[in-house]
């Protein structure tokens, strides 16, 4: 059964940023996310998973965790992620990882994430395998990763630049509703001035 990614408990906040509101510049930056340095870090930071799966021929999946839940039901989850090195994802690029899903006992969720263009046979194989195994699955594309990067404050939603100390050079701040010390003092003085008439 398909589950939209922003229906998972750890990603519900993404609903506040609809897909059609993500700026093209942010999507372009997300297309260059690497699997290890950005995609995995975006996911593991959101689900609070401290373990890092070593990459190599022995890995079961890119992220293998018990920290993902849907409607407060946690379960064993496997993520298959493809970063910028896969501009086009063919079935042959992920078949071995999809096959390994069949070997995982008690798997509850399977998630396929990518920032390139995925060909239909690759997506169909993932969906069919998930259906055969009677597990819930989700698919994240580049727009979802852009939304996630904005949500955790990695990228500015206006121009796609990486934020530094919670700020972007365009003036955007991650928590725009938090005032700095000078702003707080200015508002206090305005209030006092009004009260004095």
What's the helix and strand layout?
Blueprint: H1 24-30, H2 35-47, E1 63-70, E2 73-82, E3 88-89, H3 91-101, E4 107-114, E5 117-118, H4 120-132, E6 136-140, H5 142-151, H6 181-196
Parallel strand pairs: 2-4, 3-5, 4-6
Antiparallel strand pairs: 1-2
Describe this structure in words.
Helix content is 36%, strand content 18%. The protein is elongated and about 75 Å long. The model has no long low-confidence stretch (mean pLDDT 88). It is built from 6 helices and 6 strands; from the N terminus they run ααβββαββαβαα. With 197 residues, the protein is an alpha/beta fold. The protein has one domain: Trna Endonuclease, Chain: A, domain 1 (3-Layer(aba) Sandwich), CATH 3.40.1350. Strands 1-2-4-6 form a 4-stranded mixed sheet, with helices on both faces.
What is shown here, in short?
With 197 residues, the protein is α/β, with parallel strands linked by helices.
The main pleated sheet reads as:
4 strands, mixed
The residue fraction in helices comes out at: 25-40%
Low-confidence stretches: none
What is the string of SSEs from the N terminus onward? HHEEEHEEHEHH
Strand order of the largest sheet: 1-2-4-6
Number of helices: 6
Mean pLDDT: 88
- Gross CATH architecture: 3-Layer(aba) Sandwich
Strand content: 15-25%
Number of domains: 1
Radius of gyration: 20 Å
- Structural class from helices and strands? alpha/beta
Number of β-strand runs: 6
Assigned CATH class: Alpha Beta
Shape: elongated
- Ends distance: 64 Å
- CATH topology type: Trna Endonuclease, Chain: A, domain 1
């Amino acid at each position: 059964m398909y589950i939209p990614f922003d229906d998972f408990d750890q990603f519900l906040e993404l609903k506040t940023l609809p897909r059609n509101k993500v700026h093209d510049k942010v999507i372009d930056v997300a297309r260059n996310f690497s699997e290890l340095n950005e995609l995995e870090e975006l996911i593991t930071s959101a689900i609070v998973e401290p373990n890092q799966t070593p990459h190599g021929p022995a890995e079961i999946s890119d992220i293998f965790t018990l920290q993902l839940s849907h409607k407060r039901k946690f379960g064993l989850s496997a993520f298959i992620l493809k970063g910028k090195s896969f501009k086009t994802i063919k079935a042959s690029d992920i078949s071995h990882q999809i096959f390994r899903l069949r070997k995982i006992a008690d798997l509850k969720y399977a998630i396929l994430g990518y920032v390139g263009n995925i060909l239909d046979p690759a997506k169909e194989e993932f969906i069919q395998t998930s259906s055969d195994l009677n597990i819930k699955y989700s698919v994240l594309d580049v727009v979802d990763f852009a939304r996630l990067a904005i949500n955790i404050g990695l990228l500015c939603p206006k121009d796609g630049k990486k934020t530094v100390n919670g700020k972007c050079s365009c003036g955007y701040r991650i928590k725009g509703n938090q005032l700095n010390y000078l702003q707080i003092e200015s508002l206090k003085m305005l209030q006092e001035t009004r009260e004095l008439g």
